[in-house]
Specification:
Elements lengths: L7 H11 L15 H14 L4 H7 L9 H14 L3 H6 L10 H17 L1
């Protein structure tokens, strides 16, 4: 029905909406592509900043050198403060004393970028 994978999105969207089964030959389904999942995660997070799953996907996409250890530390801080991971990340200055300076700097850069988008 089409020549390039980039043209698959409209067909897939109609099939998904109408509940029609379909199969992609020779490539990945549009919504299973990493870059599409990443973009959708950015949009989900911007619409709902409490979406921790979307946040975890985008916080280091593209690479910002924010590793799993730093993310886990932020989750621990959130649990101790009885708040969300998103709140900790978006208000990182309130929790600065609990993170290493290098991690704090990287998260601040991410937070500034997100706040500019909001």
């Amino acid at each position: 029905m089409y020549r390039t994978n980039a043209q698959s999105a409209p067909f897939e969207q109609v099939c998904i909406t109408d509940g029609l089964p379909y199969k992609i030959l020779g490539g990945k389904k549009f919504f299973e592509r990493r870059e599409i999942k990443d973009i959708l995660s950015y949009v989900k997070f911007l619409v709902n900043p409490d979406d921790s799953l979307a946040l975890k996907r985008i916080i280091n996409t593209p690479t910002r050198q924010i590793g799993n250890t730093t993310i886990q530390q932020c989750e621990d801080i959130a649990a101790q403060a009885e708040t969300t991971l998103s709140h900790v990340v978006l208000h990182i200055d309130q929790y600065a004393q609990k993170l290493k300076p290098a991690a704090l700097t990287k998260i601040k850069k991410f937070t500034i970028m997100i706040q500019e988008m909001l």
